[in-house]
Inverse folding.
């Protein structure tokens, strides 16, 4: 009964976030990798947000102040892009706007790890990675990863996530079979989603952008917004899979399902439980 009550509460919260997002349509600046731009922009549009893939350092002073949140993803990082990422994070901080870091493939190289650690110094509101990414970041060491894919279960990374949340002050979110969210003390798990979502490149990047959009409508409650975004994205995947034949059609049906999600389905099927 307690579990059912908790699920009902999270269902209501998740619906409140999704409906606020649809009403407010926040502008989300995405400085993201070259693989993810299309799926990420379509995910944000389907959810009700307004994406802008604007990454030149020359445009940040004019543009970033008009956004409701910033998403920074290092998936195809080059030295030329890093100053723009830091500038956007700096503007977000100065104007008290949330910004979210996706440390995509952080364990691939020392260059990428150093860049992520420097970005974390700029106080992201949320950090979302897969299990390997969160472990690499927390230990500040490279190697235990398979490029952009994870070698770990999300549950393997919960202690690393708690430690990273405490040291950085960010909400830390780990995607996987259960999507965990922690502020260093509390831990919740979002149980929606399905393994086939790993077979769509940039699904992880896209859920991070959705987190940025959910946090944009309620920056004071980034923990709750992050867990809700995970479940809503996973639920769209579950519904989409009912119509799909494989990863390519799941990609399409996930977007359609996110766009069409209704209150009754969210209340009934969102599943988020406490682990702390
Ligand atoms: N085994 C799984 N079961 C259910 N959902 C999953 C599973 N693995 C990943 N997902 C979902 O797929 C999306 C991408 O997660 P993931 O593959 O961990 O990210 P990344 O692409 O960054 O490695 C998330 O929404 C996550 O919840
Ligand atoms: C394949 C790849 N290589 C560099 S970034 C990228 C996209 C990874 O996206 P995701 O981590 O969301 O699967
Ligand atoms: Mg992936």
């Amino acid at each position: 009964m307690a579990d059912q009550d908790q699920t009902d509460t999270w269902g209501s919260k998740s619906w409140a976030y999704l409906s606020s997002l649809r009403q407010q349509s926040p502008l989300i600046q995405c400085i993201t990798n070259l693989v993810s731009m299309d799926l990420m922009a379509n995910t944000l549009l389907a959810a009700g947000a307004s994406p802008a893939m604007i990454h030149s350092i020359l445009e940040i002073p004019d543009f970033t102040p008009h956004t409701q949140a910033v998403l920074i993803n290092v998936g195809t990082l080059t030295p030329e892009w890093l100053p723009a990422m830091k500038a956007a994070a700096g503007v977000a901080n100065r104007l008290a706007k949330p910004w979210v870091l996706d440390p995509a493939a952080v364990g691939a190289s020392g260059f990428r790890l150093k860049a992520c650690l420097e970005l974390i110094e700029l106080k992201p509101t949320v950090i979302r990675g897969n299990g390997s990414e969160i472990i690499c970041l927390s230990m500040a060491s490279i190697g235990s990863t398979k490029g952009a894919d994870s070698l770990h279960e999300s549950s393997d990374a919960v202690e690393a996530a708690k430690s990273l949340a405490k040291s950085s002050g960010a909400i830390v979110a780990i995607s996987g079979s259960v999507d965990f969210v922690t502020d260093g003390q509390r831990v919740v798990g979002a149980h929606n989603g399905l393994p086939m979502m790993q077979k769509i490149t940039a699904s992880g990047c896209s859920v991070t952008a959705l987190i940025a959009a959910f946090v944009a409508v309620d920056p004071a409650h980034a923990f709750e917004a992050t867990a809700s975004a995970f479940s809503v994205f996973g639920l769209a995947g579950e519904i989409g899979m009912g119509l799909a034949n494989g990863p390519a059609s799941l990609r399409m049906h996930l977007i359609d399902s996110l766009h069409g999600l209704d209150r009754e389905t969210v209340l009934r099927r969102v599943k988020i439980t406490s682990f702390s």
